[in-house]
């Protein structure tokens, strides 16, 4: 892939990335090549597994709860709390651990970096999560187009199994756990956890009605924990150094602890990824990306993928964390900022985003199946300057119908968020797309 379109690169030098401050990326090589098993072991690899498997699963869950690692797949739900709900009651093994590596959110390329360059960190996190959740089988559900990640993970799983880190009686602990790599065919909806489970089972990837939640009844009817790649990659550090250390990583910038793999794409000088404390101000992230390219000004930005709401330049002072961005009316989402320059017309941008959401709808519920293509048609007309009076109100009403609680999954609310926020902040641009009635010939007035 050409350097021009490959954004999934870390833009921090090895000097900046230290084990005490950069748990996700300190082991990455300067040359961007894969960190194999030998190098991973040299860099304290599988140290957390060695320690944790000598204790009990409840202790792992207790540490994860105190650390409050919030899910990096977009919703920010505490991983420890999720695990605690799954563990309770029942026979052993309890069920399955699934790593969500579908990563198809537009503007998001963080899990890709971790899987391509540091797959053993994910495997270590999965062993720990499997141990805590009393599972014996883990799955990585990987976006099919991520061929380099598939190769790296496949090789790392084989290496780990060969060395006794996967399979029976891991490290002499008596705990059995293995991982299977499953590549999807490349649909956005497969990233929704219940659609992912259907797809994993060989069914059509429609989301399932909740409840029951996957933690109660997931893959093949068993309790199933679904976690994002980055969430799981945080686990070894938390267990190695403790919940207080993890909390301290955000350095008082946020009530949430830890670091986050943030990123920037769009018309910036240096698109890429940075591991920074949770709560880093958005302005600092944009600075690290070199600001806007070509002397442009910032018009708006999406904080974490296409399914988040637009924020304005005045919001750059905000801390990038789940609650702060939520209070500003958007969502942190995946934490990868998409920058919109001042010369970008919003109707065209929205038409592009909503075309994606319409194409990726699974078609199960009416507001999403019918509403999204209708939204695209209205936006196309506005873009051509052929909109009709009332179109903005129609778009607003469609956005309401796509909103939370009206559909089976969060795909439709995700599609509504950028639309609603763009209509609020940039209304005049959409109004300008409404064709005015042709003036009547002179003499026919009145
Ligand atoms: C349409 C849609 C697509 C999603 N895609 C992804 C994805 O690619 N990766 C991911 O981790 N979570 C994705 N999610 C969120 C998952 O449903 C789920 O919340 C997440 O995997 C839980 O992991 P976490 O708690 O570690 O964040 C998606 C959600 C929706 C509604
Ligand atoms: S909201 Fe859309 S993607 Fe989600 S279940 Fe309904 S039709 Fe499918």
TrEMBL record:
<feature type="region of interest" description="Disordered">
    <location>
        <begin position="1"/>
        <end position="20"/>
    </location>
</feature>
<dbReference type="InterPro" id="IPR011538">
    <property type="entry name" value="Nuo51_FMN-bd"/>
</dbReference>
<keyword id="KW-0408">Iron</keyword>
<dbReference type="Pfam" id="PF01512">
    <property type="entry name" value="Complex1_51K"/>
</dbReference>
<keyword id="KW-0004">4Fe-4S</keyword>
<dbReference type="GO" id="GO:0008137">
    <property type="term" value="F:NADH dehydrogenase (ubiquinone) activity"/>
</dbReference>
<dbReference type="InterPro" id="IPR019575">
    <property type="entry name" value="Nuop51_4Fe4S-bd"/>
</dbReference>
<keyword id="KW-0479">Metal-binding</keyword>
<dbReference type="InterPro" id="IPR037225">
    <property type="entry name" value="Nuo51_FMN-bd_sf"/>
</dbReference>
<dbReference type="GO" id="GO:0010181">
    <property type="term" value="F:FMN binding"/>
</dbReference>
<protein>
    <recommendedName>
        <fullName>NADH-quinone oxidoreductase subunit F</fullName>
    </recommendedName>
</protein>
<comment type="similarity">
    <text>Belongs to the complex I 51 kDa subunit family.</text>
</comment>
<dbReference type="InterPro" id="IPR037207">
    <property type="entry name" value="Nuop51_4Fe4S-bd_sf"/>
</dbReference>
<keyword id="KW-0830">Ubiquinone</keyword>
<dbReference type="Pfam" id="PF10531">
    <property type="entry name" value="SLBB"/>
</dbReference>
<dbReference type="InterPro" id="IPR001949">
    <property type="entry name" value="NADH-UbQ_OxRdtase_51kDa_CS"/>
</dbReference>
<dbReference type="GO" id="GO:0051539">
    <property type="term" value="F:4 iron, 4 sulfur cluster binding"/>
</dbReference>
<dbReference type="GO" id="GO:0046872">
    <property type="term" value="F:metal ion binding"/>
</dbReference>
<keyword id="KW-0411">Iron-sulfur</keyword>
<feature type="domain" description="NADH-ubiquinone oxidoreductase 51kDa subunit iron-sulphur binding">
    <location>
        <begin position="347"/>
        <end position="392"/>
    </location>
</feature>
<dbReference type="InterPro" id="IPR019554">
    <property type="entry name" value="Soluble_ligand-bd"/>
</dbReference>
<dbReference type="Pfam" id="PF10589">
    <property type="entry name" value="NADH_4Fe-4S"/>
</dbReference>
């Amino acid at each position: 892939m050409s350097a021009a379109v490959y954004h999934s690169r870390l833009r921090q030098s090895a000097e900046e990335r230290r084990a005490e401050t950069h748990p996700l990326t300190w082991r990455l090589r300067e040359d961007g090549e894969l960190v194999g098993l030998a190098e991973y072991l040299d860099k304290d690899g599988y140290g957390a597994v060695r320690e944790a498997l000598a204790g009990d699963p409840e202790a792992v869950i207790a540490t994860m709860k105190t650390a409050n690692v919030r899910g990096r797949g977009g919703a920010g739900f505490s991983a420890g709390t999720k695990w605690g709900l799954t563990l309770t009651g029942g026979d052993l093994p309890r069920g399955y651990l699934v790593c969500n590596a579908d990563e198809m959110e537009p503007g998001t390329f963080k899990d890709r970096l971790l899987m391509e360059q540091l797959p053993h960190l994910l495997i270590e996190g999965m062993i720990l999560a499997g141990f805590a959740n009393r599972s014996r089988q883990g799955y990585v559900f990987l976006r099919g187009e991520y061929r380099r990640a598939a190769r790296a993970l496949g090789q790392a799983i084989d290496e780990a199994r060969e060395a006794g880190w996967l399979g029976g009686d891991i490290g002499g602990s008596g705990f059995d756990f293995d991982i299977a790599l499953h590549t999807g065919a490349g649909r956005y909806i497969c990233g929704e956890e219940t659609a992912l489970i259907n797809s994993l089972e060989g069914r059509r990837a429609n989301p399932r009605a909740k409840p029951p939640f996957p933690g109660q009844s997931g893959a093949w009817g068993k309790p199933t924990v679904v976690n994002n790649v980055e969430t799981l990659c945080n686990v070894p550090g938390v267990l190695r150094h403790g919940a207080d250390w993890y909390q301290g990583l955000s350095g008082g910038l946020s009530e949430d602890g830890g670091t986050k793999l943030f990123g920037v794409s769009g018309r910036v000088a240096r698109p890429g990824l940075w591991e920074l404390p949770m709560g880093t101000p958005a302005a600092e992230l944009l600075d690290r990306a070199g600001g806007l390219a070509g002397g442009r000004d910032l018009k708006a930005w999406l904080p974490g993928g296409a399914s988040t709401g637009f924020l304005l330049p005045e919001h750059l002072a905000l801390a990038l964390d789940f609650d702060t961005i939520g209070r500003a009316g958007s969502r942190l989402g995946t934490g990868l900022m998409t920058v919109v320059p001042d010369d970008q017309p919003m109707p065209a941008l929205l038409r592009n985003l909503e075309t994606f959401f319409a194409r990726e709808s699974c078609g199960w519920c009416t507001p999403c199946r019918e509403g999204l293509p209708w939204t695209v048609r209205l936006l196309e007309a506005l873009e051509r300057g052929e909109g009709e009076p009332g179109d903005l109100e129609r778009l607003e009403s469609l956005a309401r119908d796509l909103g939370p609680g009206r559909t089976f999954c969060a795909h439709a609310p995700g599609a509504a968020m950028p639309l609603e926020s763009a209509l609020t902040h940039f209304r005049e641009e959409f109004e300008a797309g409404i064709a005015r009635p042709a003036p009547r010939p002179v003499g026919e007035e009145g």
